[in-house]
Amino acid sequence: MPRQLHYAVAIVGAGSAGLSVAARLLRASKALHGSVVIVDPQTKHYYQPLWTLVGGGVVRKETTERNQQSLIPKGADWLQEAVVRFHPDENRFVTGGGTEIRYDVLVVAAGIQVDWDRIKGLKESIGHGGVCSNYDYNYVDSTWKSIREFQGGTAIFTQPNTPIKCGGAPQKIMYLADDAFRRSGVRGKTDIVFASGNAAIFAVPKYAEALNRVVQRRGITAKYKRNLVELNAVRREAVFEHTDTKERETIRYGMIHVVPPMSSPSFIKDSPLADAGGWAEVDKHTMQHVRFANVFALGDCSNLPTSKTGAAIRKQAPVAARNVLNVLAGQPLDASYDGYTSCPLVTGYNRLILAEFDYDLTPRETFPFDQSKERYSMYVLKKSLLPKLYWHGMLKGRM
Ligand SMILES: Cc1cc2nc3c(=O)[nH]c(=O)nc-3n(C[C@H](O)[C@H](O)[C@H](O)COP(=O)(O)OP(=O)(O)OC[C@H]3O[C@@H](n4cnc5c(N)ncnc54)[C@H](O)[C@@H]3O)c2cc1C
User: Fold this and answer.
1) Most buried of the four, 40, 66, 88, 181, by CB within 10 Å?
2) What is the mean pLDDT of the chain?
């Protein structure tokens, strides 16, 4: 017989979204203490937004890591197992450890899956020989090593045409690398190529215009609609495929920063919770599942049509938590999310464009100045202030 447990609220994933919702629920309702379970197999939690600056050699990667146990809010149980199967029509799910959790309300917050194996040759070459990525704690140091040791030639920075976490991150590291190459004196013998599977540099026209100017000023070659499909580490060759014509182009590299394709986690993709694309299918304002009224999803694993960032989750979590409480109380849902997201676009050491926008791609800027301008103050915000707000505010359900 599998172990069976029952909770009022079961939260799948103890990342940015899962912990934020848990903390908010427990702050709002003393009655929920002891009735909330967070299910996540990972012993460590990472503040991923700083990985850009780790890759740029500005901060140490250890500063982005905490023990998961220290972040689980008081009043919640932590089940350190991976969910393998959802049965939402029976209000239960099953873990790989054989535990069955029954719930009154389920919150799905399991993040995004990085599909390293969808690029031929990547798994074998990542982390050495100039092949690096900021998209994994284990490889993020290889980015700074590749930049530091680069002696000139072609430096490629890729972006896939799938949804990814932080759509701006693939280009942020490129601007830091450009600065680093100038400092070390190799920029004169270097070609920098931005190869993106998307059709443009950024989705919001106001910030796209500013970023195109940055690319031009820096002398970067931007190639669009190009997906990286294969790496040959021995010959130091990267093969790209045009997203429309399927034509292939091979480029030799000295270093290559790879952002792999990403997708919804397989155990969500293969479940009744998924939409046609595999994402947890929720109402874009209430975050309630469209078929199961006692299921909510938010963050990177959801189909919310906004860019996948921690900043978006900061605005989603209060809405999701409030609507979970509404369902538990038998009340109509009264909280709504407008698609707010933000991307702190690092455009060099000490410079940053702070993009903020909503579902309509309309800028929603916080500060009383034009945030599409590169500013030192916004760089300081990202490097020093936002991490503190994350650990002490967002994850504690305070903001
Ligand atoms: C290089 C980089 C730069 C970024 N820059 C920024 C930035 O500048 N600003 C910004 O706002 N955001 C940025 N982000 C994005 C941000 O980190 C993510 O959007 C955010 O962490 C997503 O939160 P989440 O809770 O949805 O997923 P995560 O925080 O990834 O957490 C998902 C959790 O689910 C757990 N899980 C997975 N599978 C299972 C399972 N089967 N059962 C149980 N649990 C499971 C995982 O172990 C994990 O703990 C960046 C990300 C990266 C990688």
Assistant:
1) 40
2) 98
What does the block give as tokens for 137? 């704690």
Looking at the DSSP bridge assignments, the partners of residue 248 are: 241
- CB–CB of 334/322 below 8 Å? yes
Task: Give the percent of the chain with pLDDT over 70.
Answer: 100
Give the pLDDT confidence of 103-115 residue by residue, as tens digits. Answer: 999 999 999 999 9
pLDDT of 37 strictly over 80: yes
Which residue has a Cα nearest atom 52 of ligand 1? 48
Ligand 1 binding pocket includes 339 (Cβ within 6 Å): no
Average pLDDT over residues 223-239: 98
- The residue whose CA has the least distance to atom 15 of ligand 1 is 309
Q: Which residues pair with 346 in a beta bridge?
A: 352
Residue 352 Cβ inside 6 Å of ligand 1? The answer reads no
Pocket probe mutation, ligand 1, options 40, 79, 346, 352, max atoms within 8 Å of Cβ: 40
The DSSP code sequence of 368-395 is SS-TTS-BHHHHHIIIIIHHHHIIIIIT
Residue 115 alpha carbon to ligand 1 centre in Å: 14
Is the shortest distance between the CB of 163 and ligand 1 below 6 Å? no
Pair of tokens at residue 86: 């959802």
- Assess whether pLDDT exceeds 70 at residue 1: no
Q: For a pocket test of ligand 1, which of 93, 166, 394 has the largest count of ligand atoms closer than 8 A to its C-beta? A: 166
Q: Dmax of the chain from CA atoms? A: 67
Give the pLDDT of residue 243. 98
Residue minimizing CA distance to atom 31 of ligand 1? 15
Tell me, in angstroms, the distance from the centre of ligand 1 to residue 356's CA: 19
Q: Which residue has the tokens 């921690």?
A: 310
SS3 102: strand
What distance, in Å, lies between the first and last C-alpha atoms of the chain?
A: 42
10 close to 93: Cβ distance less than 8 angstroms: yes
Per DSSP, 300 falls in state G
pLDDT tens-digit profile of 345-395?
999 999 999 999 999 999 999 999 999 999 999 999 999 999 999 999 999
193-216 per-position pLDDT tens digit: 999 999 999 999 999 999 999 999
Interval 256-279 mean pLDDT: 98
Give the three-state DSSP class for 28.
helix
- Residue 296 phi/psi, 5-degree rounding, is -125, 155
